Amino acid sequence: MPYTCFDVDIADHVAHIRLNRPDAFNSMNRAFWRELPEILDDINDNARARAIVISSTGKHFCSGMDLAVFTDGQGATAGASADRHTAGEAFRRYVHVLQDVFTRLDQARMPVLAAIQGGCVGGAVDMTSACDMRYCTEDAFFVIQEINIGMTADVGTFPRLCKLIPEGWVRELAYTGRRLPAHRAREIGLVNEVYKDHETMLAAVMETAREIASKAPLAVAGSKVMINYARDHTIADALDYIAVWQVGMFSPAHMAEAFAAKSEKRDAAFADLEPLKKKM
Question: What does the alpha-carbon distance between residue 278 and residue 71 come to, in Å, rounded to a whole number?
Fold first, then answer.
């Protein structure tokens, strides 16, 4: 179906989601928050791809949250009760709705790769920090913009960014609102690689996504589950969980196909993940 904020293509087992509002610097308006979860749920639940690439159009990747999300008369603040406590409770749940959109990236069964050009601002940092890998162009920069407009980032930046880069860098960016340039983002591990321009970056990222898509989807999904679990738990817990995972998910047939394909010098043919069962 057509979307107002995104273009979506699926080829070679790779889903390519492009932000397509360059004239508005791809800001996250209300339609963005409706459309992105619909797109991600369709790809994830129906196993339509083995990897996802998120890229953008125009000068900047994304300028972050469109404040109309909170102020256009439809958000959590619209018609708020004079009781600040009940209004606060409702707003907290509204923020959870926004957070859950990006949590879909973190919890997707397939890896998500972000290709970033120009500005990655505010909510865009929340979004890209939920992706598996990030790549950017030489002109890219990252800004925790919320501090510059008198608020605290709340849609996922801090819980995730603190797992990606040294805490001192998170604090400096959060407290000052300074730009983190591409070369520094690469040095501290926020991005995997920096490319000279958008075209070169996108070609490289798509090639990486296709390489991921050529592997056994179950093994890739299991790797993502285990990396996320290890991030959020102790070493002992993660070791036990991978043992339990292997009991149910290890596939000798997939391993045999991988060895056979290598021996026969051909591409391996693996089954896709199964679509998820719909709720009754």
Answer: 35
